[in-house]
Structure formats: structure tokens, C-alpha cells
Amino acid sequence: MSAKKKLSYFPLIILILLVGNVKAQLDPHLSGPEFVDKSLYDNHEVLEDIFGKPDAGLEKTLIKVKGNLYRHTNGTLPALHSGLVLITHEGAIVIDPALTQAAIWLKDEIKKKFNVPVKYVILTHAHYDHAGGSQVFQQAGAKIIIHKNGLEPIIGEKLPVAVPDIIYDKQLTIKLGGETVIVKHIAPSHSNSMSVVLFPQYKALQLTDVGESKTMPYNDFLDFYYDGWIETLDWALKQDVDYIDVGHYTMATLDDIREEREYIVSLHQQVLNLVREGQSWDQLYRNVKFTEEVKKWGGFDAMNKLNILGMFRWVSNHRRGVW
Question: For the Metallo-beta-lactamase domain, which residue ranges apply (predicted)?
């Protein structure tokens, strides 16, 4: 064959290789995915995984919610971390392993109880306390999913978690074993990588860290976007759900989410008004009022001033008067 004829086949060979690579990445169970080229991060630095060793003393559970839907928890309080787990005959879907030592147990427990592999792990956002342990499932063959904004902090913060296999923009749908799971990014809220996960057949929702179950938002709102948080709660309140897992503590109801929204909006408006009156921090935090119901919420004594501080920072950075 002449050199000229060989060269004429070259574009065709390249096309075949490209098509083959695309086919290799297609996943018939997913709608809306983007596949991550993990080779770009092969040698990226990671920090020590402080929860990297098995801990027999860590309390762990996997409890049925309804049908094929379960909730995993670890720790006490009554649950330090939690997430939903869907079991199908084609494999399991796990949300937020949370800690490596819990993930080791959860992977084995799913295999022991149901004899199916974990097919997908959904990370609700790129914070170590929820994404930790994802590498345990990835090493066993699961694909790790996160919103596209979660990839950069996982690499940039050197988190000791899995580099995601799959990212998405607005929505990703999983159809597995006759079940449907909808993963959505509503808006930046508790981080700009936050996903909510809807299980329409079970009227269940994963609303990690954005939702609360008669508990105070954590600390000073950590990685906080006020407008997007309210937008996400507004979206949740329109859903036909009767079971909401918030990633910690106990399950929530739509009434809990409504009360949480009222609290955050009230806190924002009070702080904004006091700042506009010219009050300093030392004056302002003493003048924020809480309802008697909110004072009964879990963590109120520890978190109320921190909540004011977080909202004070947000308000101060998102206003401008005549200057």
C-alpha cells in the first residue's frame, strides 16, 4: 500500500478510535452525565484521611425506609451522618458514605444483606464530612457522581476522597433496576456544588445540610449562599414527598422545612435591618430575636450566636449604601 493511501485512512482510524472511546463512556442507565477524565488527576496530592481506619466502636445502621429504599447512619446524636440507599436487582445507589470507616462497613453490609454491588455513589456536595469514604466504593467498581462544581474543591482542597467519575450541570437521571432517581442542582446553597436527590416512586428526598429537622443550621452557615438556600427550600416545598433525609440527626417533614425557611428569612431580615441602623456586631447580636419554638430546636444554645455571625457576614458582604 502506498504512503499516500495509508495517509488517507488516518482520519478514519482516528474517528473510529474517538467513537470507540465515546461508546466506552456511554452509560445506558444515565441521562445528563459528563464523564471526567480522571487521568488528569492521577498524581494529585491528597491530605491524610483522618477517618481512614475501621472503627468497631462507631455505631452504624442500615434501616428500611419503605420498599427498596433504606437509610444509612453512623455515629450518635441520634445520627452524626446519614444518607439514603436504594437497592435494585441491578445494583445499589448510595448517597454520601460520610466517613471511610463507615463506608467500609456499609459496602460489606449491602453485599451481605442484598448480594448486589454498589453501582453508583452520589455525593451531595464536596465537603469531606459527606464525601469521605467514596473511594472505598470506587475501588470496588462504583461510579462516583457529583455536581460539576464539586470537582475543583475535591482536587484543590486535596480531599482524601474519590475523584468523581461523573459530573452534571442541572439534572442527572438514573434509571436502574426499574427504579428512577433524579439528581438536581437547584442553586448554590450550602456550597455551590449542592445536589438534591429525589426518589419519586418513594416520595422521598435527600436534602443534605440545606434541610433541617427542628435543628439549627450548623455553626456560622459554613460555605453559605443565602439566596440559593432559600431557592432550594422553595423548590423542596413544592415536591410531593413525605420523607426527607437531611444528612444528619432525624428525618424531616415538609412542615420542618417550612419552619426552617421562616427562621432563615427572619434571621436575614433582622440582621439586615440592624446593620442598616448602623449597629455594630457587639450591639447587633444582642438584638436578634428568636421565637420560643426555635429556642427548642436541637443545638440552639451552641449555634444561635454562630448563626447570627454567619448571617452578619453574608449581609455585610452583599449590600452597599451611599458610599
Answer: 80-248
Q: Specify the pTM.
A: 0.91
Q: Is 123 strand, coil or helix?
A: coil
**Helix or strand run (H / E) with residue 30:** strand 30-31
Give the structural domain span for 28. 24-253
Adjacency order of strands within the sheet including 118-122: 34-35, 166-168, 143-147, 118-122, 91-95, 81-88, 69-74, 60-66
Do the domain assignments include residue 126?
yes
Residue 36 domain-assigned (yes or no): yes
Please tell me the total count of domains within the chain.
1
Of 259, 257, 289, 268, the closest CA to residue 224 belongs to 268
Find the CATH number of the domain harbouring 126.
3.60.15.10
pLDDT level of residue 54 (50, 70, 90 thresholds) = confident
Which 8-state DSSP code applies to residue 277? T
Place of cell 439586615: 272
**pLDDT greater than 70 at residue 22:** no
Measured in whole angstroms, how far is the alpha carbon of residue 8 from the centre of its chain? 49
